[in-house]
């Protein structure tokens, strides 16, 4: 435990916490979007379980992230998955019905949080792993301390979404942006993207258009059906 008394350990810990504060914004948005339609009590459970499990997942992912990023098509698949998640969160599609709807919806929210965090964290964990420099205690401690940061951010975002519904659309747009970025960052496309820097922003913008455009179209269609049935 002598490493606890070294300045390098505490400096590294502060760096990891700071990195997580910077990189956890989009994760907090995903958690808030996934949990916003749940009853208050289930919101708290979904945020706590989702945030805690996501951090544990990041710790495991850190060990293999560098190798995973070398695989072709992995980030293409992950980016497409993010676009689908953004679309579902914007349209408010939920699993479950009847008496089991509450539990089913909460589990669906936690599942969405984990999948989205897995995809969005591939690049992020490399920065954290580089800062930890192989010190697993530093890595685990730094990520564990980030849990309350993500929980607080998610809880704040849920309250803001209730007060300002436009934030839901902005959150889905953020997921679409990250999804587009993830696709063109794939190992297979990275060389071409580096040679054409504009493609990075074009793909991210296209992700926003796909998620928000299709989501709004489906919302309008569902609203039209509801009016006809009424």
TrEMBL record:
The chain crosses the membrane at residues 12-34, 46-66, 72-90, 110-130, 136-153, 160-178, 198-218. It is a multi-pass membrane protein. Its main location: membrane. InterPro entries: Integral_membrane_TerC (IPR005496), Integral_membrane_YjbE (IPR022301). It holds the Pfam family TerC. Keywords: Membrane, Transmembrane, Transmembrane helix. It is found in: Membrane. This is TerC family protein. It comes from Acidovorax bellezanensis.
């Amino acid at each position: 435990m002598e490493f606890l008394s070294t300045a390098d350990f505490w400096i590294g810990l502060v760096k990891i916490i700071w990195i997580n504060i910077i990189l956890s914004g989009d994760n907090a948005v995903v958690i808030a979007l996934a949990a916003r339609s749940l009853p208050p009590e289930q919101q708290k459970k979904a945020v706590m379980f989702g945030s805690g499990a996501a951090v544990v997942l990041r710790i495991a992912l850190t060990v293999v992230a560098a190798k995973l990023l070398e695989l072709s098509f992995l980030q293409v698949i992950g980016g497409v998955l993010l676009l689908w998640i953004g679309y579902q969160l914007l349209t408010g599609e939920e699993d479950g019905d009847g008496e089991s709807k509450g539990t089913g919806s909460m589990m669906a929210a936690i599942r969405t949080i984990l999948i989205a965090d897995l995809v969005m964290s591939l690049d992020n964990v490399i920065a954290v792993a580089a800062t930890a420099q192989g010190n697993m205690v530093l890595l685990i401690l730094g990520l564990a301390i980030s849990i309350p940061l993500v929980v607080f951010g998610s809880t704040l975002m849920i309250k803001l979404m209730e007060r300002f519904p436009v934030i839901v659309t902005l959150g889905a747009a953020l997921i679409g942006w990250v999804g587009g970025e993830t696709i063109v960052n794939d190992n297979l496309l990275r060389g071409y993207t580096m040679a054409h820097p504009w493609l990075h922003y074009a793909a991210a913008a296209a992700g926003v258009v796909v998620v928000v455009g299709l989501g709004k179209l489906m919302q309008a269609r569902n609203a039209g059906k509801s009016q006809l049935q009424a």
